[in-house]
Design goal:
It is built from 18 helices and 16 strands. By secondary structure, the chain is of the alpha/beta class. A hairpin with a 6-residue loop joins strand 11 and strand 12.
């Protein structure tokens, strides 16, 4: 699908927020149209191109939730991404339960919003296809064809349809959240919320409130009721990143949620139940922490039902050229640049480098490279990589992005034995619809052997 044909609608009564969101969306190569109220949005003539709606919960007159209900009554099917303030969270819970794709809390994280928009547009486009399967999962962020990555994706396919708790292990920057999202997307909960929390990023004193919520007046500074992440994730998936950073005194409460599926908000005696599936991730060795009595043994075994190890980038170096091309195309689109060639010597250096920061480090380097490149050749600042050189072999040639795309599609087709449809077919693995794949096969001159 060509996302440039998609249109993102923004409804927010704050002018600065509308302009900021519109500029961000346009910087990603997408079109955006803004409205100051729900009434203005309903009265406008809107094109029928695939798209999504970024909607503020608190609006004057007709609220965001009211607008969601009005669209549902009118039979208007458009993915909705809610943006909320601190006090809007109880309302956003009802919005999610009414079918909203996702909610994001202000101040909005740039990458989270763009990821949600891309997913919403892909889902809307799929739903519009004559034989569209709205259950098709878009895994386009997971790039690579290495045996190590294939093993991970095979495990994702096995555990996703179950309700089992999953523990994702791996170094920082390896893409553990992407694996968690892939599990959620391939599960029966895919249309319910995916709620994430980085346990290491929240001060210890506030982590309990983030997880379980609190009542007004529960502690100094609790000026309003707050809904916790487990309550928000009810019916969906909660992803706890850096679960090894949860303090011991809070691990007991987390264990209770896993065992009994119930909890209380801080300052309340009312017991609440949750039907949230837990996916946890850590870059720490929990088994050693158990031996050191820094992590509860019973909680470890509850989390470690189905462990998935995500390999470091140095363990799947054959995927680096595909990742480089993927990030180069993504950032080039956002910056309205054209990148056609990546020097072979540069690619050899990148493949040899050990990448201590893993995919996150590679992504940041390629973004910087696209900024510095003013022509069709990607200029990568190799001086930013420590002590890494690789000689160019005589038979190495500069690889165009089209050649890399052709190699990637061929690898997926061979891995799926040229099966296009179905949850394990090439269409699902590539994260595109069937008509787009057929177009690319024709454009790239890819023909099935024996035909």
């Amino acid at each position: 699908m060509n996302e440039k044909n998609a249109l993102v609608f923004i409804v927010d009564d704050d002018r600065d927020t509308r302009e900021s969101l519109r500029n961000l969306i346009r910087s990603a190569g997408l079109s955006a149209q803004t409205f100051s109220s729900a009434q203005e949005f309903l009265a406008a003539e809107r094109p029928k191109a695939p798209g999504c709606l970024v909607l503020d919960v608190q609006l004057p007159g007709l609220s965001g939730l009211d607008l969601q209900q009005e669209l549902a009554k009118a039979g208007v099917k458009i993915p909705i991404i809610f943006i909320t303030g601190y006090g809007d969270i109880p309302t956003s819970v009802r919005a999610i339960k009414a079918g909203a794709l996702e909610f994001l809390t202000k101040p909005i994280d740039r990458e989270d919003l763009l990821r949600a928009i891309h997913q919403a547009i892909a889902r809307d486009h799929t739903a519009r296809q004559p034989n569209g399967d709205t259950g098709t999962h878009n895994f386009e962020e997971i790039v690579g064809t290495s045996a190590a990555l294939k093993a991970v994706l095979k495990q994702v396919g096995v555990v996703a349809p179950t309700e089992s708790t999953v523990l994702i292990l791996g170094e920082t920057g390896t893409g553990k959240e992407l694996i968690a999202r892939a599990i959620h997307a391939a599960s029966s909960r895919s249309r319910r919320p995916f709620v994430k929390l980085n346990c290491a990023a929240i001060p210890t004193g506030l982590l309990e409130s983030e997880l379980f919520g609190h009542e007004k007046g529960a502690f100094t500074g609790a000026i309003a009721q707050r809904i916790g992440r487990f309550e928000l994730a009810d019916g969906g998936t909660i992803f706890l990143d850096e679960v090894g950073d949860i303090p011991l005194e809070l691990q007991t409460k987390l264990l209770r949620v896993l065992q009994e599926r119930e909890f209380e908000r801080l300052g309340s005696t009312r017991t609440l139940r949750t039907d949230a599936r837990l996916i946890a991730a850590t870059n720490r060795e929990l088994q050693k922490m158990v031996e050191q009595r820094k992590f509860r043994e019973d909680l470890f075994y509850r989390l470690n039902v189905f462990p998935i190890y995500v390999p470091a980038l140095r363990e799947r170096s054959e995927d680096i050229p595909l990742l480089v091309n993927h990030f180069a195309q993504r950032f080039a689109r956002r910056m309205n640049r054209t990148i056609e060639t990546i020097p072979a010597e540069t690619m050899a250096v990148l493949t040899r480098y050990p990448w201590p920061g893993n995919i996150r480090e590679l992504q940041n380097l390629i973004e910087r490279a696209v900024i510095l490149s003013h022509g069709p050749v990607l200029q990568i600042p190799l001086q930013d990589l420590d002590n890494c050189t690789a000689p160019r072999r005589d038979n190495e040639k500069d690889q165009t992005l089209e050649e890399a795309q052709r190699a990637h599609i061929l690898a997926i087709l061979n891995a799926t034995q040229w099966v296009l449809a179905g949850p394990r077919g090439a269409v699902a693995r590539l994260g595109i619809n069937r008509s787009t794949l057929q177009f690319r096969l024709k454009k790239l001159g890819i023909i099935r052997p024996g035909m």
